[in-house]
Design the sequence.
């Protein structure tokens, strides 16, 4: 339960030496990074899966529930990020409030969140690319576009088993190369792509609104099948747990705190601003999408936007929108990989992981060795695992992180009430408690298989901690 002091973290944040990360991001960059990852896989792919399998047209309500849970957590994140502008996000906050053991748990959980998040987006990116190429009669070998756990139906009706999703692997490698070159260039690229993605969402809403078929909303909440989470009210909550994936952008902003200019102002603006903008767009987007096509048409599809747009006279725009989505997805993968490497950077600086994860490139000042290792791990995951599995794993990892951050705000307000707080979460402890309750409800709405995978992942993490992290902890060595 040994803790890092807030003062020590603030000294770490003030370090600008050659071994530190370069501060180059302003408020606009932070909002762009948040929107860049929020508008992505969840909106363009998991929305259709949540509608087809869990909520039906009421997936719009699922988004609202998920957004409410995010709002409570976002306010807590904003307070921490303004106080402790250090890379690591929830991991760093837990270290300062509830101790090293829980910091390790949440850090290991964030590894799951960002790694699997990047894999999810790369799989959806691959499916949109395949659909785009098919329009021009360019056919990739079916064995190289699906995981070994999926089968591909050919034009003649026969099926073949997948080997590896090669496009998903290649995009992870490409984005890693961009990240290693430097954060400022990554942020500029993300800003350009964000403008493109917002444009796509607005165009989709504007063009699709007049072609909504009201019959597709009947029934708005499909009757429950008798299985928890398959439609009905329980389906709406399970859908919220699935689409919650889309809101992880604001906590990724927190991992970039050590690269922010004036972080006491920049971090809250980036976190809250990106969440507000995206929530407004999501409600309209999901309403139009389920109005254009019946929710059953989205089953087993990671490219539901393409299905919906073909229900309008603007089907010719499908290719333009798909191309914009393909380009936009790259920014989601980029921010996920950035967040992941920064968590490992912080854990390595604390001695809980090997030094190579915090070794900074002499020219680019990025943790390049960690980037390369993560690239290998995540690309294998993207190539070999189906999208439904990785999407749910990311959601449960995110929700657990949010719960611990909300608890941390309550603990720190009680333990150190007089610490300077440039941004203060309102109505403590009511807001953090509501955040905890909302996130726990969505966690318990997810399938048991997702919980089992989370448990196995945490067991592996605990083994790493007790056999390596605890023995090499720098703060433990200082206080012994």
Sequence:
């Amino acid at each position: 339960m040994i803790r890092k002091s807030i003062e020590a973290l603030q000294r770490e944040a003030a370090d600008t030496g050659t071994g530190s990360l370069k501060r180059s991001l302003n408020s606009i960059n932070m909002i762009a990074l948040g929107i860049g990852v929020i508008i992505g896989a969840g909106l363009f792919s998991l929305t259709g899966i949540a509608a087809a399998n869990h909520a039906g047209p009421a997936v719009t309500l699922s988004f609202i529930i998920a957004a409410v849970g995010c709002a409570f957590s976002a306010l807590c994140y904003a307070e921490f990020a303004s106080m402790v502008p250090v890379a690591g996000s929830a991991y760093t906050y837990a270290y300062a409030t509830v101790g090293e053991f829980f910091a390790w748990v949440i850090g290991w959980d964030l590894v799951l969140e960002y790694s699997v998040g990047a894999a999810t987006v790369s799989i959806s990116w691959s499916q949109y690319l395949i659909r785009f190429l098919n329009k021009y009669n360019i056919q990739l070998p079916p064995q190289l576009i699906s995981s070994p756990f999926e089968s591909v139906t050919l034009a003649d009706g026969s099926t073949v088993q997948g080997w590896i999703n090669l496009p998903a692997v290649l995009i992870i490698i490409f984005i890693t190369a961009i990240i290693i070159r430097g954060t400022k260039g990554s942020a500029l690229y993300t800003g350009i792509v964000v403008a493109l993605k917002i444009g796509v969402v607005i165009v989709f809403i504007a063009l699709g609104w007049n072609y909504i078929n009201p019959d597709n909303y009947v029934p708005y909440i499909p009757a429950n099948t008798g299985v928890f989470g398959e439609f009905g009210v329980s389906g709406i909550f399970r859908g919220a747990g699935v689409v919650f994936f889309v809101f992880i952008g604001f906590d990724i902003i927190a991992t970039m705190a050590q690269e922010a200019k004036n972080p006491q102002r920049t971090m809250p603006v980036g976190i809250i601003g990106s969440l507000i903008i995206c929530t407004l767009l999501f409600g309209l987007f999901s309403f139009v999408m389920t109005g254009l096509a019946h929710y059953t048409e989205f089953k087993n599809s990671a490219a539901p936007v393409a299905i919906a747009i073909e229900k309008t006279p603007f089907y010719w725009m499908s290719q333009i929108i798909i191309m914009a989505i393909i380009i936009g997805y790259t920014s989601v993968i980029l921010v996920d990989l950035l967040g992941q490497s920064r968590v490992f950077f912080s854990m390595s600086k604390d001695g809980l992981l090997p030094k190579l994860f915090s070794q900074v490139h002499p020219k680019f000042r990025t943790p390049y060795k960690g980037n390369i290792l993560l690239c290998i791990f995540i690309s294998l995951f993207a190539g070999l695992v189906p999208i439904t599995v990785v999407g749910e794993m990311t959601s449960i990892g995110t929700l657990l992180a949010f719960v611990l951050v909300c608890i941390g705000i309550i603990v720190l307000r009680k333990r150190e009430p007089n610490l300077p707080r440039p941004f203060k979460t309102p109505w403590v402890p009511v807001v953090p408690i509501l955040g905890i309750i909302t996130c726990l409800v969505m966690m318990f709405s997810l399938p048991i298989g997702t919980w089992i995978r989370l448990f196995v992942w945490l067991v592996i993490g605990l083994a790493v901690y007790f056999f390596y992290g605890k023995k090499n902890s720098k703060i433990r060595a200082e206080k012994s």
